[in-house]
Design goal:
Low-confidence stretches: none
Mean pLDDT: 92
CATH superfamily of the largest domain: Glycogen Phosphorylase B
CATH architecture of the largest domain: 3-Layer(aba) Sandwich
Number of strands: 13
Structural class: alpha/beta
Largest sheet: 7 strands, parallel
Radius of gyration: 20 Å
Length: 355
């Protein structure tokens, strides 16, 4: 019996959701085709270590427990990426995988890809080909470098495939759809119903260019305070820390809350009127549930959402954000499926067994 050994590197909340989809597809494959079994070892870097941002996801989403947690924690980009790189390298040497599977665009993604590539272990990148074209974003650097050392590039859309082609990457490129769409479809039935009554919006902020710039943060909060309906604002630990340090508060229109679990967020996405965020993942999840998204960044890697009218990228000036509210509160309609049919996880597993 042949066995394909995969080491999966995750570390941040969105990666747990994506990995859950593929891990479930691996289990289904092993049940259906046991003669070509896949053995998966999950390495958790510890990039997200808060309970609601980490352990709760493994419990709620029934993700196989990590084989190891590296407990890297927070620090500068160089510090945490270097610590991850050294620790993941040791895990790869010990496990001797046939392939390393990485997700998205975090420091964990880059560290996993570099460690594997330098040990001549093939790298498979889920969410390949995304570009914001802003190299001041750490995530953009991580995306580009990961794609250029990967052997298998699993794209969520045809636009991502086209971008890779523009960069000369054509071998090992597959358009499989978005694993986050798989997750939204599968877990929607387990969503926690929103306790909020009446119309409301959901807002999230976590990117350093917003949270680490008090002026941008104040502008965003000032705009949210003028929203035409109440705004639920679950706080990323980094965002909460900066708000406290800078003495930035919110009025009654904005409710500052603890982070939502994944299932609570799904419930809010089903119930809310629109979303305001700087998150890449939440831009798509809003779209999956038929809600418009106001993106408080200067660009987005999900440009097809802007093109289809589901997303507006407005920057962080108060006036621009406020101006988008009238557009956002109108229902989203008439858009086609951009990210596959909800079978990306199965397609990824099938392709890995054929490579």
């Amino acid at each position: 019996m042949a066995t394909l050994k995969i080491i999966t590197v995750v570390g941040a909340r969105p990666q747990f959701v994506k990995a859950a989809v593929v891990s479930r597809a691996i289990a289904a494959h092993n049940s259906a085709i046991p003669e070509v079994a896949i053995e998966e070892r999950i390495v958790h870097t510890g990039q997200h270590y808060d309970y609601l941002m980490s352990q709760a996801f493994f419990e709620e989403m029934e993700i196989p427990l990590p084989g190891v947690n590296l407990h890297v924690g927070s620090g500068s980009h160089g510090e945490v990426t270097g610590a991850m790189l050294a620790s993941i390298e040791r895990e790869i040497v010990a496990y001797q995988p046939d392939c390393a599977l990485v997700y998205g665009d975090t420091n964990s993604t880059l560290a996993g890809a570099l460690a594997a590539a330098k040990l001549h272990v093939p790298v498979a990148h889920v969410e390949a080909g995304l570009r914001s074209f802003n190299k001041r974003m750490p995530e953009e650097i991580n995306r580009v470098l990961t794609d250029h050392v990967s052997d298998y590039l699993f794209c969520p859309s045809t636009q991502a495939e086209q971008q890779l082609s523009c960069e000369g990457i054509t071998k090992g490129v597959y358009v499989v759809g978005d694993v986050m769409y798989d997750a939204a479809l599968y877990y929607a039935k387990r969503a926690i119903p929103s306790p909020q009554r009446g119309l409301y919006a959901v807002a999230t902020l976590h990117r350093a260019e917003n949270t680490d710039d008090p002026r941008r943060l104040r502008q965003i909060l000032a705009a949210l305070e003028q929203a035409p309906l109440p705004v639920l604002f679950p706080l990323h630990p980094r965002t909460r820390k900066i708000l406290i340090q800078e003495g930035i508060g919110a009025n009654g229109q904005v409710q500052l809350l603890e982070p939502f679990s994944y299932f609570a967020m799904l419930g809010h996405l089903q119930a809310c009127s629109f979303v305001v965020t700087d998150s890449g993942g939440l831009q798509k999840e809003a779209y999956y549930f038929g809600k418009k998204c106001v993106t408080v960044r200067d660009e987005t890697e999900w440009r097809e959402l802007v093109a289809c009218g589901a997303n507006r990228v407005v920057g962080t000036e108060e006036a621009a954000i406020r101006a988008a509210f009238a557009w956002a509160i109108e229902p989203l309609s008439g858009v086609s499926k951009l990210y596959g049919q909800g079978d990306a996880g199965n397609r990824i597993v099938e392709l890995l067994t054929q490579c």
